[in-house]
């Protein structure tokens, strides 16, 4: 059995690794070199003056410390960071626990810009939310690398691009010690809307149920989301309306009534703002595309 490359630490007690391309072509825009998940030994310490590739890491369990270019940061669940050529870094476990982290090493002419866009080369780690979404993508890369087909390299680099976009989407702060209280409140409000959107029509109703002000609801979404609070609510409601129209084959006036609109006109206007087409036209298009061909 081949031994691990020299840059892979042996100071682990559990690990699952893959090696896809240890000699990536310099002309490639993006190559996945290797990656995996590992649990540290209590005395785990890795210190490097640089790295041949761009390494991306995400902590999922335990605690540790990271030193980037002389600055020291606490590592805990949800903290992501990166390093690369010429970037001094030191990673250590905080005993007595055993830190668990995912890692992915990439190369190519676009690697640095992609990692930078994700906020991982600012000299500070980032805190991310919804860690499970990120590890799911990491696991997909691992499974695809294990397929070892002629398609594997291309599929892995495409998933890597999605992973970096997801980190960009889910990052909360840079260099903070913990997840901000405002983000925790935002997650609570968002989850409430997702669960009760059929019974909600205004942000005032959301605010009252969550015991905060409508202005604060708007501020939370402005700070932590790429969509406004009301837009988020109305999109969920109109998505359900589209399901009723297209799959339950309900009439527009009936959907308007079920969704709590005063009349079909108000419903149609709200629907068009979200989808860019009136519900009646959407139904007509759907029906015409479903008709059998005439002979």
Describe the structure.
- The chain has 295 residues and is an alpha+beta fold.
- It has two domains: 12-170, Jelly Rolls (Sandwich), CATH 2.60.120.280; 181-289, Homeodomain-like (Arc Repressor Mutant, subunit A, Orthogonal Bundle).
- It has helices spanning 111-117, 131-147, 152-170, 181-196, 203-210, 214-224, 229-246, 252-258, 264-275, 279-290; strands at 12-19, 31-40, 45-48, 54-61, 64-68, 71-75, 79-83, 89-93, 100-107, 126-128, 171-174.
- The strands form two sheets. A seven-stranded antiparallel sheet has the order 1-2-9-4-7-10-11, covered by helices on one side.
- Helix 7 crosses helix 9.
- The chain is elongated, with a radius of gyration of 24 Å.
- The N and C termini lie far apart (65 Å).
- Mean pLDDT is 90; it is low at 291-295.
Order of helices and strands: EEEEEEEEEHEHHEHHHHHHH
Q: Can you tell me the CATH architecture of the largest domain?
A: Sandwich
Distance between the termini: 65 Å
Name the structural class: alpha+beta
Q: How does the major sheet shape up?
A: 7 strands, antiparallel
- Average residue pLDDT: 90
- H/I helix tally: 10
Number of strands: 11
Low-confidence stretches: 291-295
CA radius of gyration is 24 Å
Helix content: 40-55%
- Under CATH, the homologous superfamily of the largest domain reads Regulatory protein AraC
Question: CATH class of the largest domain, anyone?
Answer: Mainly Beta
Question: What do we call the CATH topology of the largest domain?
Answer: Jelly Rolls
Gross geometry? elongated
Strand content bin: 15-25%
């Amino acid at each position: 059995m081949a031994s691990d490359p020299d840059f892979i630490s042996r100071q682990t007690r559990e690990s699952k690794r893959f090696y896809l391309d240890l000699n990536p072509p310099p002309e490639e825009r993006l190559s996945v070199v290797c990656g995996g998940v590992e649990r540290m030994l209590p005395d785990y310490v890795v210190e490097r003056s640089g790295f041949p590739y761009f390494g991306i890491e995400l902590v999922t369990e335990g605690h540790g410390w990271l030193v980037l270019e002389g600055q020291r940061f606490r590592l805990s669940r949800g903290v992501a960071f990166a390093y690369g050529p010429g970037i001094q870094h030191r990673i250590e476990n905080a005993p007595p626990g055993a830190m668990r982290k995912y890692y992915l090493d990439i190369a190519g002419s676009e690697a640095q810009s992609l990692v930078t866009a994700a906020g991982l080369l600012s000299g500070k780690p980032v805190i991310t939310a919804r860690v499970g979404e990120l590890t799911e993508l990491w696991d997909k890369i691992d499974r695809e690398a294990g397929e070892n087909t002629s398609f594997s390299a291309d599929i892995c680099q495409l998933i890597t691009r999605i992973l970096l976009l997801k980190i960009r989407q889910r990052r909360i702060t840079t260099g903070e010690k913990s997840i901000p209280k405002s983000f925790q409140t935002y997650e609570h409000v968002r989850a409430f809307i997702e669960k009760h959107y059929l019974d909600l029509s205004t942000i005032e109703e959301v605010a009252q149920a969550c015991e905060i002000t409508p202005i604060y609801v708007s501020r939370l979404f402005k700070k932590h989301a790429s969509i406004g609070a009301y837009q988020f609510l109305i999109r969920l409601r109109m998505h359900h309306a589209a399901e009723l129209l297209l799959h339950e084959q309900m009439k527009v006036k009936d959907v308007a009534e079920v969704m709590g609109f005063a009349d079909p006109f108000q419903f149609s206007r709200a629907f068009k703002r979200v989808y860019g087409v009136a519900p009646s036209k959407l139904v007509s298009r759907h029906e015409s595309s479903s008709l059998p061909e005439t002979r």
